[in-house]
Design a protein that fits this description.
heterodimer, A: Immunoglobulin-like, four-stranded antiparallel beta sheet, about 45% strand, B: about 150 residues, alpha+beta, Immunoglobulin-like, three-stranded antiparallel beta sheet, 1 helix
Chain lengths: ~130, ~150
């Protein structure tokens, strides 16, 4: 039982394939300009994060790389890679997406396309 | 039946470990959550033992070094802190799974610790605590000599 938990994704890429992944917790915030997705990715290095947007599907993946070793004494989390898939709404300008990573937290800014940003239309005429 | 309180602690610890593993057998469909999920509202901790050290790993994404308070007193390890969700004004919430409430977790350590040598590092939102076992607790090899 213990051996399974000391294997990381680097040693064993089939973890992704086996579906043994953690779904990270996310907050999703919205304002007039953008959708902001905040995801907790503890134990993941910046280089091991992959963000893919394809046909309105956002795939977020992070390879777990914290060095856990020794005999397991108590376990509350499993050192699996993180993965979560979202369906994006229409009207986003995905080309302009930006991401930052700070202390194990990913901030993904998905700007709305200019045609969707609300604007007021003035009525002219007599 | 049990000579020391430590023995009882350890027995329950092992039972808990087994129970968690059993529970997880059925949880795979849910694809477990990480960090401070609302459901458990406290950071999750793993303990390892490599013979010489007790290694404690705690998921603390989005926290600074100075927001975490670690104390060891008479074999009682306490990790305390509060995470701030720093999202700027003017945003509406669509989904909120990340928790920001203050937390405090305490653990009875199964072995005597040399507190002078304890180190703690925070990297990518993962706290790693290295607790060096006191001299008497370290494994010792005994060489058999010919009579």
């Amino acid at each position: 039982m213990n051996e399974k938990n000391t294997v990381t994704a680097q040693e064993s890429p089939e973890i992704f394939k086996s579906g043994k992944t953690n779904a990270p917790d996310v907050d999703i915030w919205i304002n007039d300009e953008e959708i902001l997705l905040v995801a907790d990715l503890p134990g993941v290095a910046k280089e091991d994060i992959a963000i893919n947007i394809e046909n309105n599907t956002l795939t977020l993946e992070g390879g777990f790389s914290a060095d856990l070793h020794g005999t397991l004494q108590r376990q509350e989390f499993e050192p699996f890679d993180h993965r979560r898939i979202f369906t994006l709404p229409k009207g986003l300008d995905v080309e302009k997406t930006t991401a930052e990573f700070k202390q194990g937290v990913l901030y993904l800014h998905l700007p709305k396309s200019s045609s969707v940003v609300p604007c007021q239309i003035k009525i002219t005429g007599t | 039946m049990f000579g020391k309180r430590d023995d009882i602690d350890r027995m329950f610890g092992t039972m808990g470990l087994f129970k968690n593993q059993m529970n997880r057998l059925f949880d795979d469909f849910e694809n477990g959550r990480t960090g401070f999920a609302k459901s458990h509202s406290r950071p999750r901790v793993n303990f390892y033992d490599d013979g010489v050290n007790m290694l404690v790993f705690c998921e603390l994404p989005g926290m600074n070094e100075d927001e975490i308070n670690i104390k060891i007193h008479n074999n009682l390890l306490t990790i305390k802190g509060e995470r701030k969700t720093n999202v700027s004004e003017g945003y509406a919430i669509l989904r909120q799974e990340r928790n920001a409430s203050p937390f405090s977790r305490s653990f009875t350590l199964p072995v005597e610790i040399d507190t002078e040598q304890t180190t703690a590092t925070l990297k990518n939102g993962m706290l790693a605590l290295k607790l060096v076992k006191a001299r008497a607790e370290k494994p010792r090899k005994i060489v058999v000599q010919a009579a």
